[in-house]
Amino acid sequence: MKRTAAFITALTMAFSVCAISASAINGDVNGDGKVNVTDISIIAAHVKGKKLLNDERKARADVNGDEKINISDITFVAAHVKGKRLLKEEPALNNRALVEYDFGMFKEAVGGEYELTTINEGQPDMDVLAVYNFDVFPNTYFIFGNRGRDCIKMTESGVLTFDKDVFEKGMNDTVPAQVIQVENGGKIGDTGCVVGMKYSELKVKLGLGKAVVENSSLSPNIRTIINGVNWNLVFNDEATRKAVKNKHINPDTLRSDEFTFEELGIDPVCTYAISSSNMVFPTYSFERLKDDMNGEYDVEVVSIGQAAGAAMYNDEVFPNIRFVFRPDNMNLFKETADGYEVDRKKFEKIPGETFVYAVEYLPGAEIPGRGGAKVGMKYSELKEHISLGKAYKTPSEFSPVIDISMPGEDWMLVFDDPSIQNAIKDISIFGDEKFSFEDYNIDPKSTRMVWFNEHL
């Protein structure tokens, strides 16, 4: 996937602005103590093959830490020069797991250049839309959920086509990667392992456990955790399929008993590596939460928007997260001398299949799949992990907020920080007027992240 010389030249000229000083050597390719348009030109000359860098300069030019010098590095340095996203001595992407990218970060990493395709997730007729740029992420597909699927069209001859403009209109930059699928030669995280290695090699390096056969074409496989991220290593070659063909799949779990490849006398090749983002909690029912909390939880009254809800929580299992219920025809509160509290006996009678009405993340709660980002961080810190859009005011205490996408759901990231209320006091709460915190020269702390079940 090559960029034209005209594009790189135009990009270089576009950033002929005042340099931003940087004490870090990251991005300072010529070593003059500054990161500016000169460094962009030097990297561009290397990418075009006109003037190659030596090893020392390569180390400073590889600002995204992928061990290659390409258009992605030009994009990062250019963003620094414009002041949009400053480089650090340790680049943010260097330690970011693939599933911690949102669509905006993916576009930034690939310089806006990517292709669309469909891949199979393992079940018949379950093809999903995927994006890729093999120059930046070799043999790696990013799946961002169902948004943008209107871009897929089929010609009269049965060939699928993809309209990138339609795709981007259906997306927004905060949509997170839900699944990463890596094929032959692609990297398995930052372990030094690649798809195509044998099981025996991977076991030594990754400490793999037992395998299972699942009711999927991406099977047999071994599920493992690498650097805190879930991975599913698939060993789906013909010899392995023959060796496991007699493994019984339990109809209740749709998977076989666990086994080792050693006991079958085989050493299969890894054919796929699949990583998935962490689960978020709107799918949880009351019964499931009780099970996950081992029946140990506290309850409290919470304010949800302009109403009250009854929240259950166990900070040892789900730190700083509140699960809110408002089931029909159930008054869960009782009056006390100090106001109202949740009636525990009534709360415990909530039907087990009742789904949560809202989920609230309090300061300190980790935002799933976003590289360690937490509620309570400042806006500028969160932008390191999430492609945040503009904010808007609401008539409730959830104000101002920025909408962000999580796997399968949209959330509100709340910045109810007293330090900013005066700055935005003249913005209407009813006019759908959006604004950026940068315009007001403020950097508020996030105070909550909230999801509502719109169907309840």
From TrEMBL:
Residues 22-92 form the Dockerin domain. One of its GO terms (biological process) is polysaccharide catabolic process. PROSITE patterns: DOCKERIN, EF_HAND_1. GO terms for molecular function: hydrolase activity, hydrolyzing O-glycosyl compounds. It comes from the Bacteria. InterPro entries: Dockerin_1_rpt, Dockerin_dom, Dockerin_dom_sf, EF_Hand_1_Ca_BS. This is Dockerin domain-containing protein.
